Amino acid sequence: MHKPINEMKPINEMKIEFLSKSSNEAFARIVAAAFVSQLDPTVEELTDVKTAVSEAVTNAIIHGYENTTGYVTMICRLYENSVEIEITDNGKGIENIELARQPLYTSRPEMERSGMGFTVMESFMDKVEVYSEPGKGTTVKLYKSFDTKR
Amino acid sequence: MKGRSGVEFKLSNRGNTLIASLAGELDHHTCEQIRQKIDARLLGSSSKNLILDMSKIIFMDSSGIGVIMGRYKVLQNIGGKAALVCPQGAIRRILEMSGVSKYVPVFDEIDSAIKYIAG
């Protein structure tokens, strides 16, 4: 039986910080994908990771910092056949995490946001955890294991 | 039109249908300019229908869904129709998962989208 991911020791880890600029959304997902490539995922698995990272980083920029300037931190931990990606902002925080995770819910309807960010993350990753404190910031943890049978 | 932003788009008209052909990556960063250009063309001309050709989009997150639903609402206000062109793959998966394809029909090829708009 596999140990839960938080009891395992990563085989590799990286941490980057970047400004909450929308041009860094592509930067973050490309960096994450490049790092995760070490595990030899399929193209589809890599697209899933890129999409989920893009959602989490966009949330940090739009909702966490509300388009003001701050740092977004991304930590990626690689295990034998899985990845854990942690995306943190020190922004506004989320008052009601359960509500924020509902499909179609958006706190910024005027921005034409679809409210599907967390739903996309949940669909493309195995597990999504959200930790947040109003006024302090938010951490989103994304987990995904890769098919090792191929 | 190509900027440093990672998305290219071309707007053309076919009768009263505006065809926006998009290529590259569609995220929160690149969506804004697309939204503005399409709305300017829709509201400043006789176009009342829109086909978004996404066949050459190589990445899209839920920001793209926001743009599509936003344009759908604009077209509803002017009494027009919208259609999407997107082959099977990761982008199509997001369109279907988000439910946007229930409002704006998705076609594999542009000819089918044109027929739908005409019909």
What does this structure look like?
The complex is a heterodimer of chains A (150) and B (119). Chain A is α+β, with helices and mostly antiparallel strands and 150 residues long. Chain A has a single domain (11-145), classed as Heat Shock Protein 90. Helix content of chain A is 31%, strand content 27%. Chain A has four helices and five strands, in the order βααββααββ. Chain A has helices at 24-36, 43-64, 97-100, 117-124; strands at 12-19, 71-78, 82-89, 127-133, 137-145. In chain A, strands 1-2-3-5-4 form a five-stranded antiparallel β-sheet, with helices on one face. In chain A, a hairpin with a 3-residue loop joins β4 and β5. In chain A, α1 packs antiparallel against α2. The longest helix of chain A has 22 residues, at 43-64. The mean pLDDT of chain A is 93. Chain B is of the alpha/beta class and 119 residues long. Chain B has a single domain, classed as Transcription Regulator spoIIAA, CATH 3.30.750. Chain B is 46% helix and 30% strand. Chain B has five helices and five strands. Chain B has helices at 28-43, 62-78, 90-98, 100-103, 110-118, and strands at 7-14, 17-26, 49-60, 82-85, 106-107. A five-stranded mixed β-sheet of chain B has the order 1-2-3-4-5, with helices on both faces. In chain B, α1 links the parallel β2 (17-26) and β3 (49-60). The termini of chain B are far apart. The relative contact order of chain B is 0.17. Chain A binds chain B through residues 22-23, 25-26, 29, 44, 47-48, 50-51, 54-55, 58, 61-62, 111-117, 119-120, 123, and chain B through 5-6, 25, 27-29, 35, 59-63, 65-67, 69-70, 90, 94, 97-98, 100.
